[in-house]
Amino acid sequence: QVQLVESGGGLVQAGASLRLSCADSGRTFRSYAMGWFRQAPGKEREFLAAISWSGGVTDYADSVKGQGRFTISRDNTKNTVYLQMNNLKPEDTAIYYCAASGVGWLTSQKSEYRYWGQGTQVTVSS
Predict the structure, then answer these.
(1) What is the per-residue DSSP string for 1-55?
(2) Residues with Cβ < 8 Å from 67, sequence gap 6 or more?
(3) How far apart are CA 126 and CA 113, in angstroms?
(4) 28 — pLDDT class (breaks 50, 70, 90)
(5) Can you tell me the distance from the alpha carbon of 113 to that of 96, in angstroms, rounded to the nearest whole number?
(6) Share of residues in the chain with pLDDT > 70 (%)
(7) What integer pLDDT is reported at residue 88 of this predicted model?
(8) pLDDT bracket for residue 1 (50, 70, 90)
(9) How confident is the model over 49-97, as pLDDT tens digits?
(10) Residue 32 and residue 52: Cα distance in Å, rounded?
(11) Helix and strand tally (H, E) in the chain?
(12) Per-residue confidence (pLDDT) for residue 25, from 0 to 100
Protein backbone atom coordinates (compact mmCIF):
# COMPACT_ATOMS: atom_id res chain seq x y z
CA GLN A 1 0.00 0.00 0.00
CA VAL A 2 1.28 3.46 -0.93
CA GLN A 3 0.32 6.42 1.22
CA LEU A 4 1.74 9.72 0.03
CA VAL A 5 1.98 12.86 2.13
CA GLU A 6 3.24 16.12 0.66
CA SER A 7 4.83 18.91 2.64
CA GLY A 8 6.89 22.03 2.12
CA GLY A 9 4.33 24.32 0.57
CA GLY A 10 3.59 27.81 1.82
CA LEU A 11 3.32 31.49 1.06
CA VAL A 12 6.44 33.02 -0.50
CA GLN A 13 7.38 36.10 -2.47
CA ALA A 14 8.22 36.02 -6.14
CA GLY A 15 11.81 34.95 -6.71
CA ALA A 16 11.92 32.67 -3.67
CA SER A 17 12.61 28.94 -3.64
CA LEU A 18 10.73 26.05 -2.11
CA ARG A 19 11.46 22.36 -1.84
CA LEU A 20 8.40 20.16 -1.74
CA SER A 21 8.64 16.71 -0.21
CA CYS A 22 6.43 13.70 -0.68
CA ALA A 23 6.89 10.85 1.76
CA ASP A 24 5.48 7.36 1.53
CA SER A 25 4.79 5.44 4.71
CA GLY A 26 4.60 2.12 2.87
CA ARG A 27 7.32 -0.35 2.02
CA THR A 28 7.05 -0.38 -1.77
CA PHE A 29 8.03 3.20 -2.58
CA ARG A 30 11.13 2.26 -4.50
CA SER A 31 9.05 0.11 -6.84
CA TYR A 32 7.26 3.10 -8.33
CA ALA A 33 8.09 5.84 -10.74
CA MET A 34 6.90 9.09 -9.20
CA GLY A 35 5.48 12.30 -10.55
CA TRP A 36 4.61 15.83 -9.52
CA PHE A 37 1.53 17.68 -10.75
CA ARG A 38 -0.11 20.97 -9.88
CA GLN A 39 -3.58 22.40 -10.12
CA ALA A 40 -4.34 26.10 -10.13
CA PRO A 41 -7.84 27.40 -9.39
CA GLY A 42 -10.14 26.84 -12.34
CA LYS A 43 -7.53 24.89 -14.28
CA GLU A 44 -6.83 21.28 -15.09
CA ARG A 45 -4.27 19.36 -13.07
CA GLU A 46 -1.05 19.57 -15.06
CA PHE A 47 2.02 17.38 -15.18
CA LEU A 48 5.30 18.90 -14.05
CA ALA A 49 7.92 16.20 -13.68
CA ALA A 50 8.48 12.47 -13.28
CA ILE A 51 11.33 10.31 -12.02
CA SER A 52 12.07 6.63 -12.48
CA TRP A 53 12.13 4.19 -9.57
CA SER A 54 15.91 4.37 -9.40
CA GLY A 55 16.10 8.12 -9.83
CA GLY A 56 18.27 7.69 -12.89
CA VAL A 57 15.78 9.00 -15.42
CA THR A 58 13.70 12.15 -15.22
CA ASP A 59 11.21 13.86 -17.46
CA TYR A 60 9.75 17.34 -17.36
CA ALA A 61 6.80 19.11 -18.91
CA ASP A 62 7.76 21.36 -21.76
CA SER A 63 6.40 24.29 -19.76
CA VAL A 64 9.08 23.86 -17.08
CA LYS A 65 11.86 22.13 -18.98
CA GLY A 66 13.16 25.14 -20.83
CA GLN A 67 13.23 27.37 -17.77
CA GLY A 68 15.16 24.96 -15.59
CA ARG A 69 13.45 26.22 -12.45
CA PHE A 70 12.09 22.86 -11.25
CA THR A 71 14.09 19.76 -10.35
CA ILE A 72 12.69 16.41 -9.31
CA SER A 73 14.73 13.98 -7.22
CA ARG A 74 14.18 11.10 -4.85
CA ASP A 75 15.81 9.38 -1.90
CA ASN A 76 14.69 5.78 -1.71
CA THR A 77 16.34 5.34 1.69
CA LYS A 78 13.87 7.92 3.01
CA ASN A 79 10.92 6.89 0.82
CA THR A 80 10.72 10.48 -0.34
CA VAL A 81 10.50 12.33 -3.64
CA TYR A 82 11.29 16.02 -3.88
CA LEU A 83 10.48 18.93 -6.14
CA GLN A 84 12.93 21.81 -5.89
CA MET A 85 11.40 25.01 -7.22
CA ASN A 86 13.50 28.11 -7.78
CA ASN A 87 12.69 31.66 -8.85
CA LEU A 88 9.02 31.17 -8.11
CA LYS A 89 6.48 33.30 -9.93
CA PRO A 90 2.89 34.24 -9.08
CA GLU A 91 1.70 31.93 -11.87
CA ASP A 92 3.22 29.01 -9.94
CA THR A 93 0.47 29.42 -7.34
CA ALA A 94 -1.37 26.11 -7.16
CA ILE A 95 -1.91 22.98 -5.15
CA TYR A 96 0.99 20.63 -5.79
CA TYR A 97 0.45 16.88 -5.81
CA CYS A 98 2.78 13.94 -5.91
CA ALA A 99 1.70 10.63 -7.37
CA ALA A 100 2.97 7.08 -7.79
CA SER A 101 2.82 5.67 -11.27
CA GLY A 102 0.75 2.59 -12.01
CA VAL A 103 2.72 1.80 -15.15
CA GLY A 104 6.27 0.67 -15.68
CA TRP A 105 7.50 3.78 -17.52
CA LEU A 106 7.71 7.51 -16.98
CA THR A 107 4.45 9.11 -17.94
CA SER A 108 2.86 12.54 -17.96
CA GLN A 109 -0.68 11.16 -18.07
CA LYS A 110 -2.74 11.68 -14.90
CA SER A 111 -4.75 8.56 -15.64
CA GLU A 112 -1.64 6.40 -15.42
CA TYR A 113 -0.84 7.38 -11.85
CA ARG A 114 -2.28 5.00 -9.31
CA TYR A 115 -1.76 6.70 -5.94
CA TRP A 116 -2.04 10.40 -5.07
CA GLY A 117 -1.19 12.54 -2.11
CA GLN A 118 -3.56 15.10 -0.66
CA GLY A 119 -1.63 18.06 -2.06
CA THR A 120 0.23 21.00 -0.60
CA GLN A 121 -0.62 24.63 -1.30
CA VAL A 122 1.98 26.92 -2.83
CA THR A 123 1.16 30.61 -3.02
CA VAL A 124 3.54 33.08 -4.62
CA SER A 125 2.93 36.77 -4.06
CA SER A 126 4.19 39.46 -6.41
Answers:
(1) ---EEEE--EEEETT--EEEEEEE-SS-GGGS-EEEEEE-TTS--EEEEEE-TTS
(2) none
(3) 33
(4) confident
(5) 15
(6) 100
(7) 97
(8) confident
(9) 999 999 999 999 998 888 889 999 999 999 999 999 999 999 999 999 9
(10) 7
(11) 1, 11
(12) 87
Q: Name the burial class of residue 15, with classes exposed (0-12), middle (13-18) and buried (19+) by CB atoms within 10 angstroms of its CB.
A: exposed
Exposure b/e, 50-64, CB count within 10 A at least 16 = b: bbbbebeeebbbeeb
DSSP 73: E
User: Rounded to whole angstroms, how far apart are CA atoms 59 and 72?
Assistant: 9
| Per-residue pLDDT, 12 | 98
Q: How far apart are CA 86 and CA 71, in angstroms?
A: 9
Q: Convert the pLDDT of each residue in 36-45 to its tens digit.
A: 999 999 999 9
Residue 113 Cα distances to 17, 64, 93, 110, 121, angstroms: 27, 20, 23, 6, 20
Cα 117 to Cα 2: distance, rounded to the nearest angstrom:
9
